[in-house]
From TrEMBL:
Record key words, sorted: Carbohydrate metabolism, Cellulose degradation, Copper, Disulfide bond, Hydrolase, Metal-binding, Monooxygenase, Oxidoreductase, Polysaccharide degradation, Secreted, Signal
GO cellular component terms given for this protein: extracellular region
A Gene Ontology molecular function term of the record: metal ion binding
Catalysed conversion reaction: [(1->4)-beta-D-glucosyl]n+m + reduced acceptor + O2 = 4-dehydro-beta-D-glucosyl-[(1->4)-beta-D-glucosyl]n-1 + [(1->4)-beta-D-glucosyl]m + acceptor + H2O
Subcellular location: Secreted
Chief location of this protein within or outside the cell: secreted
Protein name: lytic cellulose monooxygenase (C4-dehydrogenating)
BP GO terms, sorted: cellulose catabolic process
């Protein structure tokens, strides 16, 4: 084999490795500063080896990206007091620029049931938007972070839930199907909760359209008069 051929193959292999490493999973739940083990409370995802994202917002994978029907039963249920700081730790840093959010869904009959979260029961409790100004353009404060955390509203009713963390990576989102969705669903039991009424609620799939302005966007060539990032999905419920 010629040196030139060998060099080409080496560069291609390194490129493939780099691309794979730039993708990620969210295997670890964080509860009040404690990081749990991989997949201890998070449903093991189909990309647990490849790290590949979801790109089709109409697929069932957009909900929790489970490996298969055994993922729910294989993960435990973490006890989390309402008002706690929770979050997810990816297997590498959040390499891609994008938008982060967190949703919850009441889990019936239990958080480790494969039938939990299948209906229009999801409500958003947090988001971290890209920032924009005419001077600096679009910036991404959460890029390269090692974890992301947020608070479960104190008025969240007690009970079992799915907690869904998501990043929508926007680096190649200029065409339909280009945005990359990185997703993890943790199974939790909220205790010491309140009497709030979470909402508005949405279903996954159904919450997003492939042409939503926060999903179909060229972050490197924003249109004239651009006014700022428009987050997809419902408004945040803060309790």
């Amino acid at each position: 084999m010629s040196f030139a051929r060998l060099t080409f193959l080496s560069v291609a292999a390194l490129t493939a490795v780099h691309t794979g490493l730039a993708h990620y999973t969210f295997p670890d739940l964080i509860v009040n500063g404690t990081v749990t083990s991989d997949w201890q409370y998070v449903r093991e995802t189909a990309n647990h080896y490849t790290n590949d994202p979801v790109t089709d917002v109409t697929s069932d994978a957009i909900r929790c990206y489970e490996l298969d029907s055994t993922s729910a039963g294989a993960a435990g249920i973490a006890t989390v007091p309402a008002g706690s700081t929770v979050g997810f730790q990816p297997n590498i840093d959040l390499y891609h620029p994008g938008y982060l959010s967190a949703y919850m869904s009441p889990a019936s009959p239990a958080a480790n049931s494969a039938s939990a979260g299948l209906d229009a029961t999801w409500f958003k409790i947090w988001e971290a938007n890209p920032q924009y100004s005419s001077e600096t353009g679009m910036t991404f404060p959460t890029q390269n972070e090692l974890q992301f955390t947020f608070t479960i509203p104190e008025s969240t009713p007690s009970g079992q839930y799915l907690l869904r963390g998501e990043q929508i990576a926007l680096h190649v989102a200029s065409s339909v199907g280009g945005a990359q969705f990185y997703i993890g669903c943790a199974q939790i039991n909220v205790v010491n909760g309140g009497d709030g009424t979470p909402g508005p609620t949405v279903a996954f799939p159904g919450a997003y359209s492939a042409t939503d302005p926060g999903i179909l966007i060229n972050i490197y060539a924003l249109p004239a008069g651009y006014a700022g990032y428009q987050a997809p999905g419902p408004a945040v419920w803060s309790g």
